## 1
Amino acid sequence: MAWTTKSFNNLLQWRKVVWPLRSIRMYPPQFVIRDPIIQAVQKSFNQGHEVAVIVFNISNMKDIYEQLSEMQYIDFIKEMKMSFQQIIQEQIEDDDLLLLHDYNSDGVTLFIKVDHEQHCISEIDQVMKKVLRNTENRICDQFPCLFIQFESGYMFVEKKQYSIQEAILKAGQQALAMAEKRVQSEFNELLYSLSRIVAQKNILLLAQPIFDVATKEIRAWEMLTRGPKGTEYENPLHLFSVARQTGMLYDLELIVLEKALEQINDTGCTHDIFINFTPITVGNQKFIRDLKKLMGKYKNISPTQITIEITERDSIDGMEYFIININQLRNLGFRIAVDDTGAGYASLNTISEIMPDIIKIDRSVIQDIDKNSLKESMLKGLLLVAREAGSLVVAEGIESEEEASVLSRNRVDLAQGYLFARPASLIHGLASV
């Protein structure tokens, strides 16, 4: 491919790799993206994680160069790189981070190990905003006369690529395209691909059952989204990250709702159905209107059968219509669930704001809970919060009988995970009940 040769030439000029951040290792000019990064990416894949490439750039570097002397410009570049490095160190755990300084570009590139869940996208967005805001403040303190325009973008390294090296390079170029949003670039190709998926409603929904912990009976199904089969968009992380960065997240999530209602209608499913939405979508001024329009097509489906599942990793601060829409959803009969509880700093605040009907405890709390007494104490604390709020509790990511036994003795209401069933089509899942 044409981009491969060009990208390798650029990579020849990368000089410094920080991995982990506190232990700096220097490589000679002929260093190509080889052992450290490829090994780290492969190790992350083997552990079941995803790897995101994040690019931070300064879009008006030419203007800055013209305003400074040569020595001032060198000082500016050093300060900019150092500020990025220090602030990134404050925001991201060392074990999760590969950092590359590209001295031939106008910024830095990160490789981050992340959870495989779709909702880690919102965490990446939050980290990017904090890094850019704090870096801008720090640099502006050092160079108050300069006006600096930052840009950022990210993409996930595709696991299905034949060569990890090519997958890394492709993800890096796409992340840079997202940051720069260049005309006639990868950005336009990504935007075109996502637009086609939305226009053709070309997504696949899988369903994972949610079980009653005490009786082992299926109580509900969570709908999970996949893009077109056999493409890079089949990975929901890739699909939703592109949708988010191209301004098409709202449209995509409404298609998920439409497809879910269609499947409920076609299969005659009578269980409760959980459908994921970001606060960005729920807080959209048009959401209630568009929701009513879709529900109007399926008179046989009651809002009481639908649970609107909201990831708490997106901050709801400053969303004017979010709480208004939550109240309207309740008045219509929908139930509200808060996802990923225990995974982010805003859990308790979000619960107090929403007072959800259902609290879903994140898999990070549940994983190896039978071997970690502190995690069980966290579970007990979250159960107390849930009971105070009058919420049912769903534990996510159950993968062993030992983990399930901890849930039983703590009287957790509901559970889902690979121990019980993997995601499949709703019709296939219902047929196996």
## 2
Amino acid sequence: MASWQELGPGNFILATAGELLNTGLVLGSERALVIDTGCGPRQAAGILAAVREITPLPLVVVNTHAHYDHFFGNAVFAADGVREFWAHENAARTMAEHGEAQRRMLDSAHEPEMAAADGELAEIVLPTALVKDQPVLLDLGGVVATLFYLGRGHTDGDLLVGTQSTVFSGDLVEQGSHPSFEDSYPAEWADTLRQLSALRHRYEFLAPGHGKSVSDDFVKTMANTMSTAIRMAREAARETPNDATKAIPILPYGPEQSRWFMARLRQTA
């Protein structure tokens, strides 16, 4: 388990092994906020232990979206006494409807209990508190964290967390690899990134869902690259309507992600 990196006062990220998930931590005087809990009880136990090295405060959890590597660790935090799990309403619905199916996506060598649904800590613990269209302010004691939704992007339920110094973006922003398009809305994602960029004057740091903290230029480049890919794909579809996949070799993503990109672009057009 990597060590915590402090971004702003009382704002930390922890890059965990494997998926290199960034778990966020925001400290108040009365309670602390944990952002994303990992892909199962083993990873979550490491995250919780790291949290407890920083603070003994009661915890609140936010799941930024409904992909297993961000919420399958909830049961470990519930066992530590957490009762307040926040997510966007769309993400909560997806977790309830498709959470069990996501067990198949796990590496059973790393999370055998979660993959096999073996034991209480392998239960899927769903959000207990929902964010809809309006931001929610969480008072942690002298520190306020704002939970807010800018629109569809990586999924239809990407929740962001903002503090006085930092915005935690979940997988709306990823550093070190191409964006993941499996459940995405590519055209809307580019617009959502631009909305995020427009808010960057409020924050000094941006913590992505995976990878190192990034600048506003990174977010703008990600949005522009996605818009360019959309334009290229649509032009290819007009030129070869029966085989729009011919655009894949020229898209600015790797072949596998480009295939997902094309599939989602057609589905969400």
## 3
Amino acid sequence: MATAAAPRPYRPADREALIDICVRTGHEGGDARPYYPDHELLPSIFAEPYAVLEPELAFVVENGGRAVGYVLGTADTAAFARRFRQEWLPRVAARHPAPAGPPATPAEVMRDLLHRPERMVLGELDAYPAHLHIDLLPGHQRQGHGRRLMAAYLDALRARRVSGVHLGMVTANTPARAFHDRLGFHEIPVADPGPLTYLGLRLDRPGPSVR
């Protein structure tokens, strides 16, 4: 198998690949397409808004000229949540309307999340203002690409003097947890985490290298 290139900045031409990666890794790290009839729903929450609102913090690795993995996020979660509501949600709300009642299907749960960007802002995470999402297609995992993507992203945050970064991952996704543990992330207790585990990394203190 050919080796993917080193990370490079995201480009608008990567949009189709970004959406594909997100949905094919969106169910506990596996393919989410059987669970969500509209394959753009998950990317509209967890991928595309970052590429649109903070493209300077979006990086991809490619193989054969097509992106096969990405890391993206925000340097300031509270500010991002505001921009999500003001700038992103109006672009996608008609296609993905909020549920009329309590969410009853996986798609309704996700549409509910889409319409509540303030859920991203948790007091327990104040010391870790940035957050990220990282995904690689299964055939390109365990080849060092994830570590290189993380290095590119964390370097960009450090250049902005960001004090810390966090992520929320589905607790059942144990391979992802092992990956982040190896990079020096630690668990952050959150009062009501639901199905997620929150992990954080301080960037203003010496720590293990991700390279």
